[in-house]
């Protein structure tokens, strides 16, 4: 296939989720620092116990503040949960769309997109566990399925261009993009629980199936986009 045209990078990179930041400090914080601390604590608690199992009281206890402080910043558990989910979504969406923004061979783009999601699963497990749960909050800013739709839209644009150049029906790009993104996402959920094989091997096998098809699978697939 021909190289993909360059797509612009998102202008602002979301801050990475805090996976294992320092424990709560017994020092006076600014309002912004306190807000970040509460988000870190809530994120860890939601990943550990789920939305229903977490409480404002426990968030406050772990942050070493009173419950009114949590209400002052977020209005309650629903408010802080919505912010946590939104930040995770924006971070992951930026990582994957950035991987698709560089001009490269379609197979390389596929490797990068799969690698971005698997990197998030491996290094930001709390966030991924929060997102894959069904949101119990109607006003939450997003869900994992809506995130996948956003990513699929990015992939659809790339596939549509390639289909047109190759003489395929461009309308089918939407179908193929949903299939590709769904396969990688659900594999990521399985891999989070199983924990093996290595991330690079998982990505290589995903690309092997997508790129070569069942009838032409490589016995020992390897990633081609490997930093030197």
Would you give an account of this structure?
The chain is built from nine helices and no strands. By secondary structure, it is an all-alpha fold. The chain has helices spanning 31-53, 56-63, 67-74, 77-101, 106-123, 125-132, 144-166, 173-194, 199-212. The protein has two domains: 31-75, Homeodomain-like (Arc Repressor Mutant, subunit A, Orthogonal Bundle), CATH 1.10.10.60; 84-216, Orthogonal Bundle (Tetracycline Repressor, domain 2), CATH 1.10.357.
Give the % helix.
Answer: 55-70%
Q: What is the number of beta strands?
A: 0
Rg value: 20 Å
Instruction: Name the poorly predicted regions.
Output: 1-10
Number of domains: 2
Could you say which overall geometry the principal axes of the C-alpha atoms support? elongated
Q: Beta-strand percentage?
A: under 5%
Major sheet = none
| Cα-to-Cα separation, first versus last residue | 24 Å
Structural class: mainly alpha
Q: Provide the CATH topology of the largest domain.
A: Tetracycline Repressor, domain 2
Reading the helices and strands in chain order gives HHHHHHHHH
Number of helices, where a helix is a run of at least 4 consecutive DSSP H or I residues: 9
Region (Disordered): 1-25
Pfam families: TetR_C_46, TetR_N
InterPro entries: DesT_TetR_C, DNA-bd_HTH_TetR-type_CS, Homeodomain-like_sf, HTH-type_TetR-like_transc_reg, HTH_TetR, Tet_transcr_reg_TetR-rel_C_sf
DNA-binding region: 55-74
